[in-house]
Amino acid sequence: SLAAESLVHSYSKSFSGFAAKLTKAETEKLSGHEGVVSVFPSQLRQLHTTRSWDFIGFPQTVARATVESDVIIGMLDTGIWPESQSFNASGYGPPPQKWKGTCQSSSNFTCNNKIIGARFYHAGQDLNDTEGHGTHTASTAAGNIVTHASLLGLAAGTARGGVPSARIAVYKICWTLGCSDVDILAAFDDAISDGVDIISLSVGGAPTDYFQDAIAIGAFHSMKNSILTSNSAGNSGPAAGTVSNVSPWSLSVAASTIDRKFATGVKLGNGRTYVGGSINTYEASRMYGLIYGGDALNRTSGSDSRSCGAGSLDRDLVRGKMVHCDGVSRGDEQARVGAVASTMSLPPDTPLDAAFSFLLPVSVLTNADSAQILEYINSTSDPTGLIFKTRAIIDNSSPHVIDFSSRGPNPITTDILKPDLTAPGVDILAAWSEATTVTGQDGDTRTVPFNIISGTSMSCPHASAAAAYVKSFHPTWSPAAIKSALMTTDNIMFTAARQLSVEDNSDAEFAYGSGQIDPIKAVNPGLVYDAGEIDYVRMLCGQGYNATQLRLVTGDSSASCSEATNRTAVWDLNYPSFALSSEKGKPEGTVKRVFRRTVTNVGKGHSKYKAKVISSKELKIKVNPKVLRFKDVGETISFRVTVKAKLKQSGIISGVLVWSDGSHKVRSPVVAHTLQ
After folding, report:
1. What is the three-class DSSP state of 200?
2. Strand intervals (E) in 287-332
3. Which of 8, 89, 219, 472 is the most buried if burial means most Cβ atoms within 10 Å?
4. Name one GO cellular component term (predicted).
């Protein structure tokens, strides 16, 4: 038996399991016991860190369901700052009757009728958000409408969440060192039991087998209980196969830009100016002496000072000056030695994408501009420079997926397209905790009610809010139906009529999935690709899971993989997108797959949908039947899609299937790719 002192947590409300401290021998012994599905080590997961809603065509004046205030979003994150105006409870009635949760109050934290529940999962700690991340994500999803919001004058305007009338339940799973699997599962267990409608989780780690992955396990049980889990796709891009949170029963969200970006000017003593990227809230007062980090070596450190690494700079040479560094850092070393500002150089061919805040005035410059600054430093005995306060500019190239957003293909199930879609996640202004500062770094004294940060952590709550918005109009829709509505009504990021190449957009759907969310269109999608627990179980059977594992995981004693009828090929999972890959060991050649799908009519009773296909000579797509005739709302019709792809050594080919009745366009990407 398990010693009581070894037990860390018991999961019993929504699924069965426990966390315990075990030796290697105990782990191996426990793994062999009948009734044990899996034993896996608890990992530390990491956080995936105004104008955005307007940019995607979701204005403040959009039509709202009268029951929006009954929708509860469960935020699994770093906590929350309840004093923020984004969470003011004025005008709110009591929590919805379905709410069964609690508020773990502490000496400096209380819930209200906006933040209706709060729990934490780390002994001896409290609920206050000392990082700001959880406050930012919660207000992005469901923050109140707050006028005159800005970061010290930057991005001034009205801040609001996507569903500003919705309620928030907070589950603090993340601390300074990360977010433990033990706590993540405990939060899922509680959130499901408490009665949340949507779970938003901007956290992730390296992709692992579905039932060795705490987030996938928790999301599976939330799906069983009619709760959609919205996940961040990760910040490990642009390398291929880096996408995380890839379970087919959850929503994986990439990060894309909006039409506002932040530019930080640099002026040199020779009169030349350059424009870099950062969020600099400091006003420039005068020109300062300018020195290159490579010329300011701390000779006792033994390290290279060109990149201004820890301990590398000589305080006497840098104090009171602006320092130019090869590479981008947090700026701790520059601040330590008394620099007043710093220019930083990106690696060659790296774009100026997201802007970040630093401890001191900073402008991050392209490699080419940085080379000119270094040339200037070497051309004069008295180089000088200054960094201006950041200003907002229009970005006409948006939307595009940001460089850091993790890319597909799906590393666990290659023939399920991930990420599912993209949402704004770059330079997002939202509420911030006043228990921390702009950067959270030592020496930063800027305490602010709003902050600007970037990450798939920021795109995830946009999608969570969009899901909650759809849920408010369609309370009985399943998680899969809501997910389908979001995916099939996405705005196109890149037209498949223009064929892809390495030169112009090699990662395409592996970057943005089905496209950019459009919550208004998602409320009325026309058709949905629905799925439930049994569909995912059959797909898992087809992926090699055995009956014993499935019975214990699902809690269904009748679950079985023994009969062929209960095994579903991954291509037959009723998913709103289509993906096929080359056979292992055969990266080139022709691949043919048949996909079986079923759509449910959620539009007009009497309707006729015609199939339209956009393909190419390398990608042939045939649909049978080509016309779907519905007589009633709720009626289902099945069809087959045959895809034949001529694959090359690397890259992807994409096309589109659109079902249209003249008013609805139900759009699904079709992607073929080689396995690397």
Report:
1. strand
2. 288-292, 322-326
3. 219
4. extracellular region
Q: Are 513 and 418 in contact (CB under 8 A)?
A: yes
Token duo for residue 317: 């040479």
Alpha-carbon distance 514 to 535, whole Å? 21
Task: Tell me which long-range contacts 543-552 makes (C-beta under 8 A, separation of at least 24).
Answer: 543/413, 543/570, 545/211, 548/37, 549/37, 549/38, 549/211, 552/35, 552/36, 552/37
- What H or E segment, with its residue span, contains residue 27? helix 24-31
Indicate if 77 belongs to the active site: yes
What is residue 508's DSSP assignment?
H
CA gap 660, 662 in Å, rounded: 6
Phi, psi (rounded to 5 degrees) for 456: -65, -15
Average pLDDT over residues 212-224: 91
Return all residues near 351 (Cβ < 8 A) that are at least 6 apart.
403
State mean pLDDT over 291-304: 90
* The pLDDT of residue 14: 56
What would the two tokens of residue 353 be? 């994408």
Q: How far apart are CA 53 and CA 57, in angstroms?
A: 7
**What are 324-343's pLDDT values in tens digits?**
999 999 999 999 999 999 99
Cis peptide before 238, with omega less than 30 degrees from 0? yes
Q: How many CB atoms within 10 Å of residue 650?
A: 14
- In which element (H, E) is residue 185 found? helix 181-194
CA distance 469 to 463: 10
Question: CA 142, CA 86: separation in Å to the nearest integer?
Answer: 8
Q: What is the DSSP string of 607-636?
A: EEEEEEEE-BTTEEEEEESSEEEESSTT-E
**Amino acid of residue 255:** A
Tokens of 610: 């015609």
Phi-psi region of 499 (alpha: psi -120 to 50; beta: other; left: phi over 0): beta
User: What is d(CA 313, CA 421) in angstroms, rounded to the nearest whole number?
Assistant: 44
Q: SS3 string of 71-94?
A: CEEEEEECCECCCCHHHCCCCCCC
For 488, the 3-state DSSP assignment is: helix
Q: State CA 406 to chain mean position distance.
A: 9
Q: What is the DSSP string of 326-373?
A: EB---SHHHHHTT-SEEEEEPPTT-------B-SS-EEEE-HHHHHHH
Nearest to 486 by CA among 528, 465, 458, 517: 517
Catalytic residue among 77, 197, 427, 507: 77
Residue 133 is among the residues annotated as catalytic for this protein: yes
Amino acid letter at 380? T
Q: Looking at 52, 86, 126, 133, which residue is catalytic?
A: 133
Which residues are bridge partners to 322 per DSSP? 290, 341
State how far the Cα of 484 lies from the Cα of 529, in Å rounded to an integer.
6
Residue 337, C-beta contacts closer than 8 angstroms, at least 6 positions apart = 313, 314, 315, 318, 319
Q: How many CA atoms lie within 13 A of 261 on its CB side?
A: 21
> CA torsion sign, 129 to 131 to 137 to 142?
positive
3-state secondary structure of 139: helix
pLDDT in tens, 403-439: 999 999 999 999 999 999 999 999 999 999 999 999 9
C-beta separation of 568 from 545 below 8 A: no
Annotated catalytic, 572? no
Task: Say which of 457, 459, 472, 654 is annotated catalytic.
Answer: 457
> Alpha-carbon distance 530 to 225, whole Å?
15
pTM of the model: 0.91
Sequence-ordered alpha helix ranges (H) in 225-361 = 315-318, 332-336
